[in-house]
Amino acid sequence: MKLLNAIRMGGAEILPLVEGGKGVSISNGISSGRWAAAGGVGTFSAVNADSFDAQGRRIPQIYHGRTRTERHEELAAYAISGALTQARRAYELAGGRGRIHANILWEMGAAERIITEVLEQAKGIIAGITCGAGMPYRLSDIAARFNVYYYPIISSARAFNALWKRAYHKTAALLGGVVYEDPWLAGGHNGLSNSEDPTKPEDPYPRVLALRKVMRGYGLDETPIIMAGGVWWLDEWEDWIDNPELGPIAFQFGTRPLLTQESPIGEAWKKRLLTLQEGDVFLNHFSPTGFYSSAVNNGFIQELRGRNERQVAYTAEPIGEHVAEYGVGPRKRIVFLTPADLGRARGWEAEGFTEAMRTPDSSLIFVTPDKAREITADQVACMGCLSQCRFSNWSQHDADHTTGKRPDPRSFCIQKTLQDIAHESDEAAAVERNLMFSGHNGYRFASDPFYSNGFIPSVKQLVERILTGR
């Protein structure tokens, strides 16, 4: 493999190896600090990270507010405290090497307020902000206020072009790099556009080349592009290294750092990663954000898939073929199904899925009574962890904090499940019952000889292994 040389990024010479940020306590100060200490970019998540009391015990994120707005304020306070805790841990462990970045999701609840407060209190600690999950136009303004570099996460040249023209051209000097996140291979939320087919992956090279051409048009020839999603062995990317057509390239690793000694995920989660097979990571559209996301096809995903498949359209009045009466809810309010769908509904009821829940799209889904109660309780307990949420209909943008739509029971409370798997994944049951994000290359843990006999490396050992190319 070609020698991987340091590149200039964010005002420093560093290894072009970036730890991808993973939200809700997964990319923490320890893992990111060790990654930076190895000479690369360590990225901690500023999305509801853990904080600790004076005795070093984790502070559970429990909500006491009676209204969503009150709980939303509690969530922001937890997020600021946790991000500051992890930033300081990372900075201390890095020992002046590499770079420390904070990762935020633009569509997380109170994102702008949270990152602004964190940067205010962590001056000189955080070198860069990485941000995706939306179109973060104001990211450059925040970076300029605190004189830190910013790294937008995009999935197409068109998206970057829009960001540049609207905002980033005003703060070009602080654009540390552009993260190209492959929408078919990356873990977590993916930036698939409406014109792209989730079942037909595209080769990243021409897409990244198109991004570079746009960047060159704006004089960004030496601004690094960070390739994220699908990166495992660097010898598979040898044609990208020192390629004058692409310009300076760095490589981001999101899934591989999960399986390190410093990774905070539990033993059951780590063991599950070592058993994944090709195809076990599922690109789905269940997220309350409205984005596609990539996660392990476990019991949690299978229940969501079943919930969505047990679905029929209804009308409030008899229209066309919708002439079969069906009673919904405790009062059995009448809606109209097609005769064929009525037969399907009766079949699901016979299997125990006796509760019909309305969706915003004039359809009914069928779930068990226990699941119906869980869905309703989760919707009521919403704390506004997203800027807007289709599961609970929360919106931080409106005075009444609602999207104006019916809550969608086909989705789920993302904060609840990510907190649970982050802190309970020593238990095999927790790994099965929760959303487990992963990049699509997660199956390679099982075949990579580096992990033979269940070996789990330190971050330092992983970075050294990556530098060998294979």
Distance between the termini: 9 Å
CATH arch. level architecture of the largest domain: Alpha-Beta Barrel
Largest sheet properties: 8 strands, parallel
Instruction: Give me the number of helical elements.
Output: 13
Mean pLDDT: 95
Count of the domains: 2
Low-confidence stretches: none
Give the class from helix and strand content and strand pairing: alpha/beta
CATH level-1 class of the largest domain: Alpha Beta
* Portion in strands: 15-25%
| CA-based gyration radius | 23 Å
Quaternary organisation of the protein chains: single chain
The best one-word shape is globular
Q: What does this protein look like?
A:
This protein has 470 residues and is α/β, with parallel strands linked by helices. The chain folds into 2 domains: 7-281 and 442-467, TIM Barrel (Alpha-Beta Barrel), CATH 3.20.20.70; 299-433, no CATH class. 31% of the residues lie in helices and 17% in strands. The protein is built from 13 helices and 18 strands. The chain has helices at residues 29-37, 68-94, 111-121, 139-146, 157-166, 204-217, 267-273, 299-309, 339-350, 369-380, 414-424, 428-433, 459-467; strands at 7-9, 12-14, 17-19, 41-45, 99-105, 128-132, 149-154, 178-181, 188-190, 225-228, 249-253, 281-284, 292-296, 311-313, 324-328, 333-337, 355-358, 363-367. Helix 1 runs parallel beside helix 2, helix 2 packs parallel to helix 3 and helix 5 packs parallel to helix 6 (204-217).
